[in-house]
DUF2000 family protein
Amino acid sequence: MAFDTKIAVLLRDDLEMWQRLNATAFLVSGVTAAYPQLVGEAYADADGTPYLAMLGQPVLVFEGDAATLTAAHERALRRDVTVGVFTADLFRTGNDDDNRAAVAAVAGADLDLVGLAVHAPRNAVDKIVKGARLHP
């Protein structure tokens, strides 16, 4: 199935594995919250056991250096694409209030980005993540 839109997560390439997984989970939750129409139907196995619904389209995960993340962030904002951000400070907080406060304390151009997520038309996402490579 071809989709008109794309979901992409871009992670800084110097993160430890647990940080990559943590940031990805939080960033994808932001896409899901912002675009609930992307969530498919709930799952069930042959026994009728219900399971949670998931996003109905793939999530592509990319990686790049700090400069790549900064450039992607700037390109997304220029295109009026809402961005999910995950900063290095969020690895040191323990709740949503502290997470928001950590981001609010820093000007956008000075955010220490370690991850970002976007959902937009396919061509816009391709331009936003230009220079990043698919996560291995």
